[in-house]
């Protein structure tokens, strides 16, 4: 992942947040009035917003994302979920860091994706990097949606605002690999999850 080039997406995301407050195609009443940090679409049963808006959802449109309904989560919604802490050694400095956030399965449950569903997850970062992983593997790896690193919220322009990540140091599938090869399934800057039938 150190080969990824982070495009100038930060300004676009901030612009989207500001625009979302004044959009005539505002989310349904049960969605938060605060900016969405993570959107889940696809095979979900608990949507809280409508279809992709070609004007407002510019970055999603540029990444080829399409949906007729989705579940949007803001920072407060993610903070209310039970948090898990992991301490993997990161490829960027080869040191262990404390990452905290809800399990990916908990986040998906908010959108109505049941544990054990036979689905694939497309995890997409703000720079367009994306990976596909089965829900079964995400459960096996106890993947989290990290919102904090070393006690601090993760910032856009760094590894945040969210990072789909696991504790590679303890997982048999990854622990014996070189550190730089352990996190290919872990997009930082996560902002969208597409749930697809397997």
List keywords for this structure.
about 200 residues, 11 strands, 5 helices, four-stranded antiparallel sheet, five-stranded mixed sheet, alpha+beta
Please report the number of helical segments.
5
Q: What is the gyration radius calculated from CA atoms?
A: 16 Å
**Amount of beta strand:** 15-25%
Strand order of the largest sheet: 2-1-11-5-6
Estimate the global geometry from the Cα principal axes: globular
Q: Approximately how much helix is present in the residues?
A: 10-25%
Q: Structural class given helices, strands, pairing?
A: alpha+beta
The biggest beta sheet reads:
5 strands, mixed
Summarize the structure.
With 198 residues, this protein is an alpha+beta fold.
How would you describe what is shown here?
The structure is a single chain. The protein has 198 residues and is an alpha+beta fold. It is 18% helix and 23% strand. It contains five helices and eleven strands, in the order αβαβαββαββαβββββ. It has a five-stranded mixed β-sheet with strand order 2-1-11-5-6. A four-stranded antiparallel β-sheet has the order 3-4-8-9, with no helix packed on it. A two-stranded antiparallel sheet has the order 7-10. β5 (119-125) and β6 (130-134) form a beta hairpin. Residues 1-29 have low confidence and may be disordered.
